[in-house]
Amino acid sequence: MIDESKAPVAAEIERRLAEGLAPSHLVVTDDSEQHRGHAGHDPRGESHFSVEIVSEQFAGLGRVERQRLVNHALADLLAERVHALVIRARAPGEA
């Protein structure tokens, strides 16, 4: 499930979420180029991401609890490297 061709931060996000949440579906998208010139843009790139994740661990949890699980898995990256993260977290069978 981990795409080794991704840039380092995107690959690390993917690895941590795969290991921590055992998703059945995971897509990590680097949206950094869309934010060039905006606050938080990092000239190194890889500063803004979207994550689409489906995991059994989200079953029965609300949106905030799901986001907390994702944020916990990525805590140091969010503190040191990633400026923005859009999270679309679902349990299996949810549209």
Summarize the structure in words.
The protein has 95 residues and is of the alpha+beta class. The relative contact order is 0.22. It is elongated. The chain has three helices and three strands, in the order αββααβ. It has one domain: GMP Synthetase, Chain A, domain 3. Strands 1-2-3 form a three-stranded mixed β-sheet.
Topology, pairings included?
Elements: H1 8-21, E1 25-30, E2 48-54, H2 63-73, H3 75-80, E3 84-90
Parallel strand pairs: 2-3
Antiparallel strand pairs: 1-2
Keywords:
about 35% helix; 3-stranded mixed sheet; elongated; about 100 residues; alpha+beta; single chain; 3 helices; 3 strands; GMP Synthetase, Chain A, domain 3
Radius of gyration: 13 Å
CATH domain fold name: GMP Synthetase, Chain A, domain 3
Question: Which blocks of ≥5 consecutive residues have pLDDT under 50?
Answer: none
The H-level CATH homologous superfamily, spelled out, is BolA-like
Produce a short descriptive summary.
This protein is α+β, with helices and mostly antiparallel strands.
